[in-house]
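Hi L., both proteins are below.
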Amino acid sequence: MPSNPSAVPKPCVVWLTGLSAAGKTSIAESLQDTLRARGLHCYLLDGDMVRRGLSRDLGYTDRDRQEHIRRVGEIARLFLDAGLIVLVALISPFRAERNAVRALFGEGQFVEVFVNTPLAICEQRDPKGLYRRARAGQVPLFTGIDSPYEVPEQPEVVLPAHEIGIEDCVARLLDFLQRRGNIPLRDAP
């Protein structure tokens, strides 16, 4: 056991929410790399990855989205119980479901991060062509087009990913997690 208690990480869930192509996964992957380079145990749950496996039986109706979010929250809780820092990159469009997931965790264990990239920028990025297809009516119930995205009311962190780069987003998250005591200070012995 380290002699400095501030050098001991405190597991938490960092839940990145925002529109498709907002930058959630890119930020989470970079944060994961940084945490691992510091010797911290973490795991990334990406919405697309979970949909290919555990949630492959779900579609994109409101009910299916709610169930998908619930499943990811339960997985995150298991990983947190195992002592990991859990990074979640998931559109998670509904406040009620994000709040239900938050309720699974104790004080200081859940960090809601709003990756605040405007719809127009997300549509310009559109790496998978989903917005274009949604506008053409080929992808029904697409978040931000014909299905709502409810902006977080009081996220712990807001990242304007259209104004700052991934490195700056990660630096802000690291600073927040350090100040809150979830990860050791960089200079800690």
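That was the first. Here is the second:
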Amino acid sequence: MSLIKRTELKEDVLTLFFAGEINSTTAGDVETESFEAIRKHQFKTLILDFEEVSYVSSAGLRVILKIKQKCDDVHILNATLSVYEVLSMTGFTSIIDVKKALNRVDVTNCEVIGSGYFSTVYRLDRDTIVKAYKKDMPMEDVERELNMAKQAFVLGIPTAISFDVVKVGDKLGVRFELLDSVLLRDLYKDHIENFDEYTKKYAALLKKINTAESDGKSLPSTKEIWLKKLNKIRPLLNEADADKLSAMMNGIEERNTFVHGDCHVKNIMIQDHELFLIDMDTLSHGHPIFEMAALIAPYELFEETDPHNNEVFFQLNRETCTRIYEETLNEYFGKDDPEIKGKIRLLGHLHMMWWTLTYNAENISRLEHHKEQLVKLLPNYNDFNIGI
């Protein structure tokens, strides 16, 4: 009986899926079958998937070593704990990249406490939530988000404490500890009488994020990200408008302070009266104006062409979302400044054009609307200085 259940070749990556025990009885067949598969395919990277391998003996280790000697770029994925311990104790983890199997989490019948374009957050139990990605998020992107969250946590930004990467169905997820926590959105929804209290906390969290210093190296530059957004929509603008926007954006001061990039009330939870972030994949470093320009999109700009978007996405009506956005900005800046808000809105329309072109390009009416609004606002400003 073959221990290689199937092979899979994607681009330059060949994956061999094993099952059973690789011991003195089966090692010879495993070696023959592995080298036959290697001979048949053209590839650069070889992955040995051990998710269904229950045991590896010394004879099996010798087969793995022979495969490593034959192929330079070899990785072992989904090693069970017992198999990983054998590979670790014998030194194989120092010569081959070995990844442990991910714990599987069943979210059937779990409470959905938040849902966005890329992920859904479930309450597993009183102490734990899991953020399950909707799309095929690569492991390196998930690990990048976890690393950024850890960096932010060390620097004093309140983030949920992540346990591990898990499998939710056939997609990846991240498990967090958040004891007795609720979404900030739910507090606005169910206790609107405490609106001012929540808004003060919300603005204070944004300030804490936007004044905390990163190392300026391990996070991407917010300005560079937004200049790429401009480059993507540039063909839709006339040359003069595109050049003016480019000059205005290049004039924004570079900073090493954090920009969350998606800090709306569905990405914030509250525990013991303290706010925590649960989504860190958009973290970067740069000027706070980019934070506000990203925030105006979900609160106000989607609603301009998609009535009731606020009720669908936030489960809050348009008036409440506008009030949250406007009063949070007033609290953040210590004043209600139309010029500041106009500059933020201008950048927000740029963001909406980019988002639509990237994720919903068939929505021509939305694209044209935000282009029209951007072109209308642009003559009013010559820079993005907002005085902070």
